[in-house]
Amino acid sequence: MFDPKGFFWFFGVIAMVSALLCITRRSPIASALWLVVTLFSIAALFVLLDAQFIAVLQVLVYAGAIMVLFLFVIMLLNLGRPGPSDIKGPLGLGVAVLLGAAMLFLLKPLGSATLPTAIQLPAGSVAALQQQRGIVGSVANPLFDAYLIPFEIASVLLLAAIVGAVVLAKRKL
Amino acid sequence: MRLDPAVSHDLLLTLLPELVLTGWSLVLLLFVAWRHQTTRDLRLTGWLTFVALVSTAIATWWLWWNRASVQGTVSMVAADDFRWVADWIFLGAGALTVLVSFGYLERERLLAPEYYVLLVFGVLGMMVMAAGADLMVIFLGLELMSVAVYVLTGFDRRRARSAEAALKYFLLGAFASGFLLYGIALVYGATGTTNLGLIGTQVGALEASRSSVMLLAGLALLIVGFGFKIAAVPFHMWAPDVYDGAPTPVTGFMATGVKAAAFAALFRVLNQAFGTLTTWHDIVWWLAVVTMIGGNVFALSQRSVKRMLAYSSVAHAGYLLVAVSAGGSPATSAFLVYAIAYTLMTVGAFAILQAKGRAGESDVTIDDLSGLATRHPWLSFGLAVCMLSLLGFPGTAGFIGKWYILIAALSAGQNVLAAILVLTSVVSAGYYLPVIMAMYMKPEPDETAHLDVRLDRWGRTAVAAVVLGLLLFGVWPNRLFDLARSAGGSVQPSSTSTAVSPP
């Protein structure tokens, strides 16, 4: 029996725990590998939302390409050795836990929030849309139609980031 | 001129200023790829950038003249007077920065013409932010602006302080972007849309229901994200170090353009999407109080002029937050008037500071300015006008801006805020006036003390324009008021109720 809620909790807990491990490990390699686990479980959550195409992209681009880049950079800069921890002593740990708990407490009311009925899609409408346009088409059509302007701004943003990276990193301008 | 964003011709017209500037940025990039060897190429790039900014301002003016507006509420970008006036502020800040950068880049041997390309990208991001009628567009504009400014901060690669400032700004900025994105996600979760107009039509109905928790949490996180960019007090820790470490023309650009853009987006988000909600007035009220008090008190204890100006810009964010907290169209007009005055006086002050300083100017203290008036009467006069305007002295544009904010706050019933504004302005005399006293009343320590003070022709032109503008708007603000009033009225919660369709 397929139980989406059970799957959600399974992958949700994995994502949270590995994200925590990612920021608490001292070795950069271990952190990067735990980040891969987080990204994979988020891809699984996308599948539960009927967004298979996004899930595949998540694995290909984030868990695949970007993580390989991370590992290469760590290797090339010779950062493999574990550095000092960012959390200083038991006092620092206590403050971190306290602040984290306060944040969770503040987010607790969100659990009681309900989605307004006006925006909830009827069951099966996403599947029907994918039947009609295809899994890629139901992402691509809005991307180049309703969201054309943000899409184009993102291209300028990437160009600016490239120029900036060259300016900061090139040995001789 | 009514523009329908569904028709591609109209859509392109709506985005005309942004398209012109994007085209120019590509031309500049190509030009820079060929010509990046000599100082002459650097100057040429600078002038091309100046022409780019002026032509974009003309495109904006054309749309304003034809009264361009967008049909319907569902549009990614707005076309209203608020956007045009905000665009002129960003373009003006950019153009003044170009003028004061000529001499600075050559003196500090920062011979990389990419500086100007990044400046153009920064202005482009600001214009996108002011234009955005959708949280996604606003976020992308914010990132575009931030990426350009992060790099400009670290542009002086030989100095460790510049690199440190850039890294600090980048890390904290990325963290703040996370807050902003989380806020956008929660607002989307509560309303099912990122369009400001559509959010506005639902907010009233949502307030009573249980999903308002998610909406309010999203709103709070949005305010945190914007609070970082405008350097409001609990989120201001980065400002002094970053302003201090960045090259001085970039500091002027950051203190004016970045701040004005974040405020413009904040005004649009709060008034257009959350205009019917009352909760955020209290949040911003407290933010304004601590920012005004904190910024002014910290500024009192600074000896370095650059750090003093950094804290003073925190204090000015507090004055602008008073206008945000008052809300409504008079407050939006007051923001525009104040932003114009603030842009002029801050760019002017940093331009004159760069004339005095060497190697980053972090070492220029107020005492270093002793007796500057006897050696350089005109520069001293310019700095004095900027300081008096920052203080809000009658006869300068700073006074008009503060007065307009006070009127807006009082008419919104925010008497306590208005009182705190006046009191903290009095405190600010404690750090603006010593600069003037040092220049005019203290003797020169020795004959050679001010031999190194030099501002090139274009820097002097920029300072002269700033001083003229400050004095002109100070005694004759009528046209400015008319412009701001029509622009302020254009940002309002959408009254037309439309059916909501999830994308």
Short overview:
The complex is a heterodimer of chains A (173) and B (503). With 173 residues, chain A is mainly α.
Give structural notes.
The complex is a heterodimer of chains A (173) and B (503). The longest helix of chain A is centred in the middle third of the chain and has 25 residues, at 52-76. Chain A is an all-alpha fold and 173 residues long. In chain A, α1 (4-24) packs antiparallel against α2. Chain A is built from seven helices and no strands. Chain A has helices at residues 4-24, 28-48, 52-76, 89-107, 125-133, 137-144, 148-169. Helix content of chain A is 72%, strand content 0%. Chain B is an all-alpha fold and 503 residues long. Chain B has helices at residues 8-14, 16-34, 39-65, 81-107, 114-131, 135-153, 160-191, 196-208, 212-230, 238-245, 248-273, 279-300, 305-326, 328-356, 372-375, 377-391, 397-411, 415-441, 457-475, 478-488; strands spanning 2-3, 69-70. Chain B has a two-stranded parallel ribbon.
Key attributes of the depicted protein:
heterodimer; A: 173 residues; mainly alpha; Four Helix Bundle (Hemerythrin (Met), subunit A); 2 domains; B: 503 residues
Helical proportion of chain B?
A: over 70%
Element-level helix/strand string of chain B: EHHHEHHHHHHHHHHHHHHHHH
Number of helices of chain A: 7
Counted beta strands of chain A: 0
Strands side by side in the biggest sheet of chain B: 1-2
Structural class of chain A: mainly alpha
Radius of gyration of chain B: 22 Å
Please name the fourth-level CATH homologous superfamily of the largest domain in chain A: NADH-ubiquinone/plastoquinone oxidoreductase chain 6, subunit NuoJ
Task: Name the helix and strand elements of chain A from N-terminus to C-terminus, one letter apiece.
Answer: HHHHHHH
> What's the CATH topology name of the largest domain in chain A?
Four Helix Bundle (Hemerythrin (Met), subunit A)
Largest sheet of chain B: 2 strands, parallel
Shape of chain B: globular
Question: Outline of chain A, from the CA principal axes?
Answer: globular
Low-confidence stretches of chain A: none
**Average of the residue pLDDT scores of chain B:** 87
Strand content of chain A: under 5%
Number of strands of chain B: 2
The appropriate CATH architecture of the largest domain in chain A is Up-down Bundle
Helix content of chain A: over 70%
